[in-house]
Amino acid sequence: MDLRDPEIIREIYHRHGRGIFNYAYRLVGDHQRAEEILQETFLRAFSRAETFHQGARVSTWLYRIAMNLCYDHLRSPKNRPQVSLSARADGDSDDSPDALSDRIEGREAAPAEIVERSERTRLIEESLRELPDRERSVVILRHLRGMKFKEIAAAMGLTTRTVQNCLRRGREKLARGLSRRGLKPDKAVMS
Asked: Are residues 15 and 102 both part of a single domain?
C-alpha cells in the first residue's frame, strides 16, 4: 500500500476520519481543535508515509499520530480538556451510540428523567476530566471507540497488560469521582 498516493489517503480518510475526529474531540474537548488534529494527522500520515510498517494496521498508526497530537495540545498549560460525553462530535444521527452517556439509559425519558440524565452526564464528564491523560485516553478508546486491547496497545505504544491496568485504574478513579459527586457507579458506565 502506497500511502503517498492521494487516492489511497482519501480512501483511508473516508474510512477512519470520523473515528479519529471523535477520538480527538473526546480528548481535547474542542471541535475546532479536533478538526485541526484530524487534518494534521492525515498531513503527517502523508508526509511520513515511510514510517508506516507494511503489514501493520493503518488505523492503529493513525490513532497513534492523533494521540500524540492530542497529548501535545493537552500538555500546553493553557489547554485543559472539556470532554463532552453527550454531544455528538460530528453530527452523527441520534441512533448511533457515540456517547458513553448513551449507554446509561436506553428508552424515551420523561422530562424529569431528561433533567436527571443531563445532570448525571455533567457529573460523568467532570469525573472523566479528572483522569490522567493516559487513563482517559484508554477509557475513551475502549468505551467510546470500541477498540480492542491489542489495538489500543499498538496505538498508544503500550503493552496490552499496561492498557488493561490503565483501564482498570481509570475505571476505579472514574468510580471514585462519581461517588464523590453522589452518583453510584453502575455497570452501564463502568463496563
From this structure: no
Parent domain of 72: 1-82
Q: How many residues does the chain have?
A: 191
pTM of the model: 0.57
Which residue is listed with cell 500546553?
Answer: 76
Domain's final residue, options 82, 111, 141 = 82
Cβ(74)–Cβ(133) below 8 Å? yes
Residue 10 to residues 4, 37, 175: CA-CA distances in angstroms?
11, 16, 40
pLDDT tens across 45-88, in order?
888 877 777 777 888 888 889 988 988 888 776 654 444 444 44
How deeply is 62 buried, as exposed, middle or buried, from its count of CB atoms within 10 A (0-12, 13-18, 19+)? buried
